[in-house]
């Protein structure tokens, strides 16, 4: 991967939530990397995205000065965008661990996606929002376990 390129990962809803939790754990347990997490909220207080800036970790377990890459987590679209000068380090040292975590717990992703789709359908049946049928269809279309797509091009801002 060339420096400056973005890596875009698209997940099913359940796979995204599991990946988001696993990613934090992987970085926290790393002896090489130190992650700083920032969350963004909309006006009503909903957490809509997070940003993890990944630096080198010093020998004394503190944050180093070198920013390696940034992981942007978009909670409303279940996407992760990894960018920065060393995206290759993410691919070489973190991505396989993340995929392993998803594979270990992958058997439950279909059930979780089904529960999410059911919740959306139930909300729609009481007439709370007329746009939910499209969301329900999208959710059902994403039920495949470990539904991850890679885009190795310059990503668009979400």
N-to-C SSE string, H for helix and E for strand: EHEEEEHHHHE
Q: Characterize the overall form.
A: globular
Q: What is the total tally of β strands?
A: 6
**Main sheet properties:** 6 strands, antiparallel
Number of helices: 5
How much of the sequence lies in strands comes to 25-35%
Span from first to last CA? 22 Å
Can you list the strand order of the major beta sheet? Answer: 2-3-4-5-1-6
Instruction: Return the average pLDDT rounded to an integer.
Output: 76
Low-pLDDT stretches: 128-158
Into which percent range does the helicity of residues fall?
25-40%
Overall tally of domains: 1
Question: Any overview of this molecule?
Answer:
The chain is α+β, with helices and mostly antiparallel strands and 158 residues long. The chain has one domain (7-151). Helix content is 39%, strand content 28%. The protein is built from five helices and six strands; from the N terminus they run E-H-E-E-E-E-H-H-H-H-E. The chain has helices spanning 13-28, 87-93, 95-105, 109-125, 132-141, and strands spanning 7-10, 33-41, 47-57, 63-74, 79-83, 149-151. A six-stranded antiparallel beta sheet has the order 2-3-4-5-1-6. Helix 1 (13-28) packs across helix 3 (95-105). The chain is globular, with a radius of gyration of 17 Å. The two termini are 22 Å apart.
